[in-house]
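We include the pair:
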Amino acid sequence: MARHLLTLDSLGRDGIRHTLGLAAHVKSRGGMTRDALAGGRVGMIFDKPSTRTRVSFEAAAWGLGMLPIALRPDELQLGRGETVPTRLASCRAISRPW
């Protein structure tokens, strides 16, 4: 089952320590993550425009071999009847492996 990081509270103390330890391990291996998720896709929704944030996330996705798909609020049809569950279903479909 997929796990999603929505808030740090959802990780808990042990989860945060594990995540930081894993990050330190990956960083120490230098290049180990290159293409680690090749062929995957990541859907990104940014409610507020931020070029720096979007480009940083896209660069990270490309570095992992993934296809980044950035969605803007004006593309999501929320104001025209698309519900949040429908929006989430679309994002899940985008993020599925090829």
